[in-house]
Automatic annotation (TrEMBL):
Family annotation (PANTHER family): DOMAIN PROTEIN, PUTATIVE (AFU_ORTHOLOGUE AFUA_6G14140)-RELATED (PTHR31465:SF8), PROTEIN RTA1-RELATED (PTHR31465)
Region (Disordered): 313-363
Name the UniProt record assigns to this protein: Uncharacterized protein
Comp. bias regions, Polar residues: 313-325, 346-356
Organism name: Knufia peltigerae
Length: 699
C-alpha cells in the first residue's frame, strides 16, 4: 500500500508540505544528520588513507577498487544528508541509491585481489583453484553484479523523483535485487573455497604433508612476528568479507520487498546493517605492502612491517621493488672474506661473534634452487654468453669469483641462469613460470645493489659493475624488453639533447633501440672503469684485428653496393634528412662504410659478438636519427639486422633479426623496397605477403 501511495505522491511532491508529508516518501523518515555525516567523514578518511598508502606502496589494482568503493560510499551518504533537509529531494535520492548500492561491490573486489597472493604465500598446492584464477573468476563475477546493479540503479533513478514512474522503478528494483543476489552467490562460493583451502591447509600442517617446493609460509614458520602479522591480516580480510556479506544479505529482502516496504523504512537497521558493516570493511581493508608484486608476480611481502621494510631499503631506491625470495636474504658479503655459506661450520660460528662476544644472527644460506642456478651457470650458461672459446673461462671463473665478492653480481648471475632455464621450458609449463619468477626476483635484488654502485665506481667494484652491465644486456635481449627499474640507471653516453623515440610504441624497432642505449651504457661503464679492467677480464674487451675477418661474399658485397646507390638516387636524396644534402649524403655513406666493415664478423662465429660494435661506437647523432625514424638510418639498420641473424644460435638473441627486418619493412615507404631485398631474402621474406609476415612475427 505504501508503495502505491509513494508512487502517486512522487509525481507531484518536491518538498515537505501538509499534502506531502515525510511519511509518503520512499523511506518515510528524515535521514539522521549526525550519523550520516559521521559516515561521510569515515569513508572520506578511508579514501584519503587508501590513496596515500596505495600510492606510497604502489598497489595500483588494490588501490583502484577500494578507493572507488570508499568514494562511492562517501558520495552516497552525502545524498542522504541532502535528503535530511528535504526527504523529497530527487538529486539526493538518485545519488544515494546509485552509490550505496554499487560501492560495496568494489570493496569486495579488493578482497578478491588479495586472495591470490595469500594462497601463493601459504602454498598453492592446497587450493582447488590455481591462484591466478581467483581474481579472474571472482572479480569477473563481481563486475557482472556491478553491471546489473548499475543498470538497476540507473533505471530506478530514471523513474523520476521518489518513483514517479512505478513500472520503471520496479524494473530497476528487480535488476538491483538480481545484482545483489549474484554478488551474494559469488561471495558464498568464494567463502566456501577459502574455507575448503583453510581446512586442507590445516590438515597438511598437522600431517606434515609439505609440498616439494617450500612455501613462503613454511620458510617463515619460525618467525613469530611474521606469524602474528599473518593472523592479523587474515582476521582483517575475514572480517571485511563477513561484513560485506552481511550487508548484501540485508539488502536482498530490503530491495525485494519493493520501494517503501517496512524494512526499507527503518533507518536504524539500514545504518547498522549497511553503513556500519561497510564502514568496518573499509577500515579492515588496508593496502598490502607488496608494492609491485601484483604486477611482477614475485613473492608477496605484505606481511613485513612497513618501517623496517623501508629502513632496509636505500632512500633513492624506494621506487624499486626489491622483494626477493627468503632464500636470497643472506647478509651482504665482505670482499675480504669468503661468503658465509661456503665456510666450514666452525669458522662460520666464529665469524658470527661480535667484538663484545655476543652472537650475531646466523646469516641465511643458499637454498637448493639457488645452488641449482649456480651449478647451471657454471656448467651451461657461461658458454652461451659469448661464442669465443677463449672467453668462456672468464665467464665461468673470473666473473663467478667477482660474484662471490659482490652480492649484486651474484644475484645477476643467478638471474641469468634462471632466465636461461626458463627459455628451455615450454611457455605454458609451470617450470617456465617458476624460473621466470625467480629470474625477476634475482634481477630486482641485483638492481637494488647495482643502481647506487654504478654512480660510484671504484677499483673494488669496477669489474663487478662491468660484468653486471653485460648481464643487463642479456636480460633485455632475452625478455624482449628492458628490466623494470633501468630507467634510473644513467648509462647513456650523452644525456643532453637526445630526442625521444618517435617509432611506434612497443614495436620491435623501438624496443631494440632501448636495448641499444644499454649497449652504449656498457661502453660508458667501460670508460669509467677501464683503469681497473685488467687481468683475465680484459679478454672480454678484445676486438678482432682487420686480418681476422674475411671479406664479404659476392652476394653481400653486391647488396652493400646497391645500398650505396641510395646516396645518388634522386628519388631518395630528399629522404636522407638534414638541411644540407651534401652533409646528409656523407653521413649516410660514412655509416654504410662502418656497417660494411663490421658486418664481416658474421662469417666468423668466434667474432659474431663484434656486430654490436656498430651501435656501441656510433656517434650520438646517428642514434638520434634512428630514434626519430629517419628512413636512411632505418635502411642501414635493416641491413645490420639481417647480418645480426648470425647471433640466432644464442638463446638470448634468437628471433630478433627476423622481428627487426619485418618491422622495418613495414615502417619504410614502398619506395625503399628494392633496397630491402637482401635483408628480406636473408629472412626468407621475399615471397611473403603482409599477412604471412605478421603470422610469423616473433613474439
Amino acid at each position: 500500500m505504501s508503495s502505491n501511495v509513494t508512487h502517486h505522491a512522487g509525481k507531484y511532491c518536491t518538498e515537505i508540505t501538509p499534502q506531502c508529508p515525510v511519511e509518503l516518501t520512499t523511506y518515510g523518515y528524515y535521514p539522521n544528520l549526525s550519523v550520516n555525516s559521521f559516515f561521510i567523514a569515515l569513508f572520506g578518511l578511508c579514501l584519503f588513507l587508501q590513496l596515500a598508502l596505495g600510492t606510497w606502496r604502489r598497489t595500483w589494482t588494490f588501490l583502484g577498487v577500494v578507493a572507488i568503493g570508499c568514494f562511492g560510499e562517501a558520495v552516497g551518504y552525502i545524498g542522504r544528508v541532502i535528503m535530511h533537509n528535504n526527504p523529497w529531494s530527487g538529486a539526493g535520492f538518485k545519488t544515494q541509491i546509485c552509490c550505496l548500492v554499487l560501492a560495496p561491490s568494489f570493496l569486495a573486489a579488493g578482497i578478491y585481489v588479495t586472495l591470490k597472493h595469500l594462497v601463493i604465500y601459504c602454498g598453492p598446492e592446497h587450493s582447488r583453484l590455481k591462484p591466478r584464477l581467483y581474481p579472474w573468476i571472482f572479480i569477473g563475477c563481481d563486475f557482472g553484479s556491478i553491471v546489473l546493479q548499475a543498470i538497476g540503479g540507473g533505471t530506478a533513478a530514471a523513474a523520476g523523483d521518489q518513483g514517479g514512474n512505478k513500472k520503471l522503478l520496479d524494473a530497476g528494483d528487480g535488476l538491483i535485487v538480481a545484482g545483489i543476489a549474484f554478488q551474494v552467490a559469488t561471495m558464498c562460493v568464494c567463502g566456501l573455497l577459502v574455507l575448503d583451502y583453510f581446512i586442507r591447509f590445516q590438515k597438511a600442517k598437522k600431517s606434515n604433508a609439505l609440498a616439494h617446493s617450500e612455501s613462503e609460509y613454511e620458510k617463515n614458520a619460525a618467525d613469530p612476528k611474521t606469524n602474528r602479522n599473518l593472523r592479523i591480516f587474515c582476521f582483517a580480510i575475514g572480517a571485511a568479507f563477513l561484513t560485506i556479506l552481511i550487508r548484501c544479505i540485508y539488502r536482498l529482502p530490503e530491495m525485494a520487498g519493493g520501494w517503501g516496504n517496512s524494512l526499507m523504512r527503518k533507518e536504524t537497521e539500514f545504518l547498522v546493517l549497511d553503513g556500519m558493516m561497510v564502514g568496518i570493511a573499509c577500515c579492515d581493508e588496508t593496502s598490502p605492502q607488496c608494492q609491485r608484486c601484483l604486477k611482477r608476480q614475485i613473492p608477496c611481502s605484505f606481511l613485513e612491517d612497513a618501517p623496517e621494510g623501508l629502513s632496509a631499503t636505500p632512500t633513492n631506491l624506494s621506487i624499486h621493488d626489491t622483494a626477493t625470495p627468503r632464500s636470497l636474504d643472506y647478509q651482504p658479503s665482505d670482499p675480504d672474506l669468503p661468503p658465509h655459506a661456503l665456510l666450514p661450520p666452525g669458522q662460520s660460528q666464529l665469524m658470527n661473534q661480535t667484538p663484545e662476544g655476543d652472537s650475531a644472527p646466523e646469516p641465511k644460506r643458499f637454498d637448493l634452487l639457488d645452488l641449482e642456478l649456480v651449478q647451471f651457470y657454471s656448467t651451461r650458461t657461461y658458454m652461451t654468453m659469448s661464442s669465443r672459446i677463449s672467453s668462456h673461462a672468464v665467464w665461468r671463473d673470473t666473473v663467478f669469483a667477482e660474484a662471490l665478492r659482490h652480492d649484486f653480481l651474484l644475484h645477476g648471475l643467478m638471474a641469468t641462469a634462471a632466465l636461461h632455464k626458463a627459455t628451455m621450458q615450454a611457455k605454458t609449463s609451470d617450470a617456465y613460470a617458476e624460473y621466470s619468477k625467480v629470474a625477476l626476483a634475482h634481477q630486482n635484488a641485483a638492481l637494488a645493489g647495482y643502481i647506487p654502485a654504478v654512480n660510484k665506481p671504484n677499483q673494488d667494484n669496477g669489474i663487478a659493475l662491468f660484468c653486471l652491465s653485460l648481464f643487463l644486456t642479456i636480460w633485455a635481449f632475452a625478455s624482449k624488453r628492458l628490466p623494470e627499474g633501468l630507467h634510473s640507471v644513467k648509462l647513456e653516453l650523452n644525456q643532453g639533447d637526445s630526442p625521444g623515440i618517435t617509432l611506434p610504441l612497443h614495436s620491435p624497432t623501438a624496443d631494440f633501440i632501448e636495448i641499444i642505449m644499454i649497449l652504449r651504457g656498457i661502453y660508458a661503464v667501460i670508460r669509467e672503469t677501464d683503469t681497473w679492467l685488467q687481468g683475465d677480464i680484459e679478454e672480454l674487451l678484445r676486438y678482432p684485428l682487420p686480418g681476422d675477418l674475411p671479406p664479404h661474399p659476392a652476394d653481400i658485397a653486391e647488396a652493400f653496393n646497391l645500398l650505396a646507390g641510395v646516396a645518388d638516387d634522386p628519388k631518395l636524396m630528399p629522404l636522407l634528412g638534414g638541411e644540407h644534402p651534401a652533409a646528409s649524403r656523407d653521413f649516410f655513406l660514412e655509416h654504410l662504410a662502418r656497417l660494411r666493415d663490421i658486418t664481416r664478423c658474421r662469417s666468423v662465429v668466434e667474432w659474431d659478438g663484434h656486430i654490436f660494435s656498430w651501435f656501441i661506437m656510433a656517434p650520438a647523432t646517428f642514434i638520434h636519427s634512428l630514434k626519430r625514424g629517419n628512413p636512411s638510418s632505418l635502411i642501414l639498420f635493416a641491413h645490420w639486422a639481417a647480418a645480426f641473424r648470425c647471433m640466432d644460435h644464442h638463446w638470448w638473441a634468437i628471433g630478433w633479426a627476423y622481428s627487426l627486418v619485418v618491422d622495418i619493412s613495414a615502417l619504410l615507404d614502398p619506395i625503399w623496397t628494392p633496397y630491402l631485398e637482401w635483408p628480406r631474402r636473408q629472412m626468407g621474406l621475399v615471397f611473403g605477403d603482409t599477412a604471412h609476415l605478421d603470422a610469423r612475427r616473433v613474439a
